[in-house]
Specification:
The protein has helices spanning 51-66, 90-107; strands at 15-18, 21-24, 32-34, 40-43, 79-82, 113-122, 128-131, 138-145, 159-161, 189-194, 199-201, 210-218, 237-240. By secondary structure, the protein is α+β, with helices and mostly antiparallel strands.
Length: 241
Amino acid sequence: MADPNSLSSSNSPRTVRVGDRDIPIWRDGQPVEIIDKYIHATVFEDWADYHEPLIARAKELEAIKWGDSRPDSRTLGGKKVHHLDQWDCPAATLLNERARQFFRLMLGETRANIDLSWANLYYKWDYVVPHSHRMSVASLVYFLDLGDPDPDDELSGRLAFADPRIDICCSEEPGYVTTRPYIGAVPGKMLIWPSHLVHFVTPYAGDRPRITLAWNISRHAGEMRPDEPYPNVAPTPTSRA
């Protein structure tokens, strides 16, 4: 099992300078939560040190890309701004490196190739239909701005899974999806799961944009993963959902 307290690649930076601070990519003792054998999460408690400039940059780039327009369908998960590595934003660089490091640790790898990265900006009634991702090994999501809570619907804008390969989706009988695990969202939380698993986002009811970041990552460009759990079930798990 990979050591969660050390970087797996000597070529990767250990810190990223954001403003006047050098922020570690991965802190000693960074906890990892087991949600399912396929799904894992970690929360970066220093999120307040970099969320403000990152949210501002996402909205700035959204305005440049989309202006007053919106995607053709609300099923696409709102407006998207791709390629975090091209944002010219140290906070985006930090999250890119954290996503790559999470991937390396969970797979016991030294390589982490970002096939695609993007921000999702959800507006009122935006959602994402059930889908999975081809041509990548793992998918990751980071909760940047949770938007407005809906007092009448606690599942507004929630990421969830619906896949018969996930044990917690089949709580009544193996192979039958009778339960959809809705992932609890807090600022600074990053999730990782194999890209082939089916997931979706429920309709978002808020007025302020809900913003997440996402990555598809592989060891090599265009690589796909067989149907199996991660080899490193979870480094130093702290809780189980």
